[in-house]
Automatic annotation (TrEMBL), chains A, B:
<dbReference type="GO" id="GO:0071949">
    <property type="term" value="F:FAD binding"/>
</dbReference>
<dbReference type="InterPro" id="IPR016169">
    <property type="entry name" value="FAD-bd_PCMH_sub2"/>
</dbReference>
<dbReference type="GO" id="GO:0016491">
    <property type="term" value="F:oxidoreductase activity"/>
</dbReference>
<dbReference type="InterPro" id="IPR016166">
    <property type="entry name" value="FAD-bd_PCMH"/>
</dbReference>
<dbReference type="InterPro" id="IPR016171">
    <property type="entry name" value="Vanillyl_alc_oxidase_C-sub2"/>
</dbReference>
<protein>
    <submittedName>
        <fullName>FAD-binding protein</fullName>
    </submittedName>
</protein>
<dbReference type="InterPro" id="IPR051914">
    <property type="entry name" value="FAD-linked_OxidoTrans_Type4"/>
</dbReference>
<dbReference type="InterPro" id="IPR016164">
    <property type="entry name" value="FAD-linked_Oxase-like_C"/>
</dbReference>
<feature type="domain" description="FAD-binding PCMH-type">
    <location>
        <begin position="35"/>
        <end position="214"/>
    </location>
</feature>
<keyword id="KW-0560">Oxidoreductase</keyword>
<keyword id="KW-0274">FAD</keyword>
<dbReference type="InterPro" id="IPR006094">
    <property type="entry name" value="Oxid_FAD_bind_N"/>
</dbReference>
<keyword id="KW-0285">Flavoprotein</keyword>
<dbReference type="Pfam" id="PF02913">
    <property type="entry name" value="FAD-oxidase_C"/>
</dbReference>
<dbReference type="InterPro" id="IPR036318">
    <property type="entry name" value="FAD-bd_PCMH-like_sf"/>
</dbReference>
<dbReference type="InterPro" id="IPR004113">
    <property type="entry name" value="FAD-bd_oxidored_4_C"/>
</dbReference>
<dbReference type="Pfam" id="PF01565">
    <property type="entry name" value="FAD_binding_4"/>
</dbReference>
Amino acid sequence: MADMAARLSGIVGADHLLTGEAIGEDYAHDEALSNDPVKPAYVALPETADQVAQLLKTATELGIPVTARGSGSGLSGAARPREDGLLVSFERMAAILEIDTENHVAVVQPGVSLEDLDGKLAEHGLVYPVYPGELSASIGGNVGTNAGGMRAIKYGVTRNNVLGLEAALATGELIRTGGKFVKASTGYDLTQLIIGSEGTLALVTEAVLKLQPRLPHQGTVLAPFADLDEVARAVPKVVASGLGPLIVEYIDGLTMGAITYRAQLQLGIPDEVKETAHAYLVVQLESRTADRLDEDVAEVGELLSGLGAKDVYVLEGTAAGKLIDAREKAFWAAKEAGADDIIDTVIPRASLPQFMERVRAIAQENNTFVIGCGHAGDGNVHLAVLQKDSEVRERVLHGLFEAGVHLGGAISGEHGIGRKHAERFAALTDPAKVDLMRRIKTAFDPAGVLNPGVLFD
Amino acid sequence: MADMAARLSGIVGADHLLTGEAIGEDYAHDEALSNDPVKPAYVALPETADQVAQLLKTATELGIPVTARGSGSGLSGAARPREDGLLVSFERMAAILEIDTENHVAVVQPGVSLEDLDGKLAEHGLVYPVYPGELSASIGGNVGTNAGGMRAIKYGVTRNNVLGLEAALATGELIRTGGKFVKASTGYDLTQLIIGSEGTLALVTEAVLKLQPRLPHQGTVLAPFADLDEVARAVPKVVASGLGPLIVEYIDGLTMGAITYRAQLQLGIPDEVKETAHAYLVVQLESRTADRLDEDVAEVGELLSGLGAKDVYVLEGTAAGKLIDAREKAFWAAKEAGADDIIDTVIPRASLPQFMERVRAIAQENNTFVIGCGHAGDGNVHLAVLQKDSEVRERVLHGLFEAGVHLGGAISGEHGIGRKHAERFAALTDPAKVDLMRRIKTAFDPAGVLNPGVLFD
């Protein structure tokens, strides 16, 4: 134990290896609900990629489980350490190394937050368009879970916007994958394999991000509909229009009430509309010019009216920003409302009504309260489950995931499997695929030290 | 031998297993230059995914090397079979299984050609936007090499537009990866891992493709520049404009002469401009409305004039179509001109002038003729090498690849490593990465029967 600590502090320096009482509470958990905190044996705060590589080499040699931590905003327990393990926190590796305006890429360390990056990019008229709800999230964490968010319908998710990585392997080598280019056909795509692997294959020490021009004008349309069926029918039409929406979200009536109340947001929707509107569609557009934006917003409005919207509200700057912000913070609203768990199953978007019907049935059968909203454009449904009894809750969660998988979906759209869902992942996935993934894991991590218990049961 | 044939024909039926003289010349090669044809021992023409899985199971059991073939239009020899091997041709698995207009996806078998698919999608106002030069290419082949093409700057390459796969493993299981959704964080992304693996990890039996609205209006601007440096400086400005170009190509003066001559294409460029223009930039835009297209085309024209273009030509429909078509067929022009090899190194796009300077130096040192054009928007440079002496040619190719890798690029942007470049791939790639890829290969294909000699030396 003391010997291990000596080895590890030899790598990062005594000041940057924490043990025992020096390890703060924050390191014991991420934001996953109903997942007890666990303090790790060691927390290392490396400063360089070489230090990360040496930490992994040592961990493999000594058989110490290793968990990576960005800003700890994950929702599936993938950053919750092991009691006997080493937590590698990237807080000291948070530099924006380069903003390359010729190739339109940024090179960053994993600890950089989305918020810091966005501030810097704005100065150059550029944007890294991946936009998960939590802007304190780190790029490293985003890569780990393949973070998505509302703008996925236009710009894709993390894996569509990361061009290359530097990563430390469990065996101590540092490799570089991809680069400042958008295409390659030169061997297996290790960048894509590491993205979404939740710290089980390698530890990312640098990322090359694809940037987009920052379009200056944004407009938001809010349309109440009678029910989710109508919303689901409207979505493909909005997408097929070619207007290229930035955001297409649905919010159910109850969630709309909760998030607008929490944000003290008045949207000017009359009570008689609220009473009969059980599902809301939010469409945000962006454009290079104010004129074109106005035309596009008007066109979306007409389109939605023709598709059965009870009314169409064009939200002005502040109200629109607040609504999107409130929607982003739905997780916190759910948490405050006493949610015991949240899930983010993804399904083919046209199956949204069928899925929600199953959700209602499962909730009712189990006397459980389930509310939600979701990325209607991409079928990613966020549900909050309120059920204190852990046995009943397990049954509900299993039922919800099963319903999603049965409709051709997947357990998680953007939160990840983590520790929380490893057992369910094993139960609901083709064993041939799980076995194959385990063999891939072993190809990267022969000693099995990288985040054991995450992804695999 | 007879026993093997009996086993294989037991799976696909005697009519669909070819041996000996029944095997046509076409099955002996793809379109890779300077790569001798090899007739395989067996050609199987399966009709179902189950048959493919059974073929692989049997091949693993008996140790028969297996090569997959789509339409044979590959340029790196990845579809060239082994003399002692089994070629699995997907010509009988060429159905478009579903065009889903709600979820905007198509489900297709691997033998479907881009051309057939495009014809069908046009009826629905949709498009599968990946656009490599050769439209007879099959989707299966596109998945194998992660095919790119001119529209990558707007829509990405194959890996950005394939949402899921059904694939047969070497061990005989059929797995499904991904699905009709654009995001997931549910285990390793096997879809992405199989894309670009050139038949060395699994055989694709079905693909779920992401579709886009088909925008009706396209406009093309051709701008001659003094040299490539000016072109390279203009490209980031065109991209940063937010106009979202569909195509940004550069064509050098010589290649422009060759392809326009071959296509008998008159672009109306005066001789005095031609004499001083050593590099051309082609920008194609698309739009929902004719008015907006006109505005955008005018804006690009002004932008390019301000960036040093000698003139700006807005090409009318036919001329534009012919130029893009001629550019697509540059490979055939190069072949007819006697090219002994072609390469498609990718580099960060801002490094294009430096790269081309190295190219000129290498060509001169080796008394070799090297001409080219390329995807200026994404740094993917296509070069034709005219050098009959295979030893000198090898030296030139190695030098070109080395120059690309040295600038932070990769050996191939879209053609793949195949058989042709396996040795160079091994020589120019970090051994830690090659070893890792070999271990991944083994995780999929323990007996090493899938396309041995491709990718790995």
